[in-house]
Specification:
Layout lengths: L12 E5 L3 E5 L1 H7 L5 H19 L1 E3 L9 E8 L4 E7 L8 H8 L7 E5 L4 E5 L3 E4 H4 L3 H16 L10 E2 H18 L10 H13 L7 E4 L8 E4 L13 E3 L5 E4 L5 H5 L11 H15 L3 H21 L9 H17 L3
Parallel strand pairs: 9-13
Antiparallel strand pairs: 1-2, 3-4, 4-5, 5-7, 6-7, 8-11, 10-13, 11-12
Helix pairs in contact: 5-9, 6-7, 6-10, 7-10, 9-10, 9-11, 10-11
């Protein structure tokens, strides 16, 4: 499943199953999925999947959240009065092991999973309240990074063995490297903007080499952007916790180098879509995350280069050349990350 960069406000429409079940499907989700393989069929199947979830878990369902791009989610209440969220994922490899990852962490830095149905790609999750995202909270940079770094540390403290069901980062990154290398040769020669092909090839090399010599391995979240960190009033967290009141959602778990995770948290800070931070600022951010997590700052920055270029080439393949959500924006940020990695000794 490729990333979807449509951010228009969702306007709901309704699907009907057997004439008596009405389910609101946000337009943002419909637009994101309709052109994917099997997307129209999956969208049409949502009412039946929702009905089965309601019956399976004895739920009273609310109107769906409008923010999901690869899954349908809605608040609900169980027969016992517990506040929960129902999530139906569009079937794709990145979402396959979400339930297993959340079960392994068991609330340590991430939302708790209360139930799952593999056939329907359905999850029952504990509802987080108030549920404001770290992105929306717009905390000062140090606080933003401290929250995210604390969650990474909490998840990393849980020992999760390599192997099934989780994908191995070596294999995942090898696959990304092959795709990126092909795009460098096919797409870049006709690019309408100036592109540093050397930086792109360096990123391909990093994708192939970084996962193989990592000192700190474990189960990585995979998509720890500030939109996937939500506020939660939890009286069970102790004073030693660096991220009280916050938990991660929507993992795309892979097992391997834990330095894979910080890139979106470090990059998506403040007005990140319209400004490119100085390399010195990025290096300072990275040192802070490294201090919290115990990860190597140079390795973190190298992953930021690799993942930034991979994202840029993904956009280029779709003809999204301009704008800070397109290739030129990704590469401008990645150039700054390359300079930061040099400052950090990579």
């Amino acid at each position: 499943m490729q990333r979807q960069r449509t951010f228009a406000r969702a306007v709901p429409f309704r699907l009907h199953q057997n004439g008596n079940v009405s389910v609101t499907v946000p337009t943002g989700l419909r637009q994101a999925i309709v052109d994917e393989d099997g997307g129209p069929e999956w969208l049409e199947s949502i009412p039946a999947r929702v009905a089965r979830a309601v019956e399976r878990w004895s739920l009273v369902l609310g109107e769906p959240f409008e923010t999901g791009m690869v899954g349908w989610t809605a608040p609900a209440t169980t027969a016992a009065g517990e506040a929960v969220v129902v999530k139906l994922s569009y079937p794709h490899i990145e979402a396959r092991d979400e339930a297993a990852a959340l079960g392994a962490w068991h609330g340590a830095g991430a939302v708790e999973v209360l139930g799952a149905d593999a056939d329907d790609w359905a999850l029952l999750l504990r509802r987080l309240r108030p549920g404001t995202s770290l992105r929306a909270e717009q905390l000062p940079i140090v606080d933003h990074l401290t929250v995210g770094g604390g969650l990474m540390r909490r998840m990393a403290a849980v020992t999760v063995p390599a192997g099934e069901p989780f994908q191995d980062l070596v294999e995942v990154a090898d696959g990304l490297a092959g795709i990126a290398a092909e795009r460098v040769e096919r797409v870049l020669p006709a690019a309408p903007i100036v592109i540093d092909a050397g930086l792109c090839r360096h990123a391909v090399d990093l994708l192939r080499t970084l996962p193989r010599n990592a000192a700190h391995r474990g189960l990585a979240h995979g998509d720890l952007n500030p939109g996937n960190i939500l506020s939660h009033d939890d009286p069970t967290t102790g004073e030693e916790d660096m991220s009280p009141g916050w938990l991660a959602i929507d993992p795309k778990p892979v097992h391997g180098d834990l330095a894979w995770d910080p890139w979106p948290l470090l990059t998506q800070v403040g007005d990140w879509t319209v400004t490119v931070p100085a390399a010195t600022e990025l290096a300072d951010r990275t040192r802070l995350i490294a201090d919290i997590t115990g990860l190597d700052p140079a390795r973190i920055a190298s992953w930021c280069v690799a993942r930034g270029v991979e994202s840029a080439l993904w956009a280029a393949d779709r003809g999204w050349w301009t704008g800070f959500r397109g290739t030129d924006g990704d590469l401008a940020r990645t150039g700054a990350w390359a300079r930061a990695s040099n400052l950090l000794g990579a």
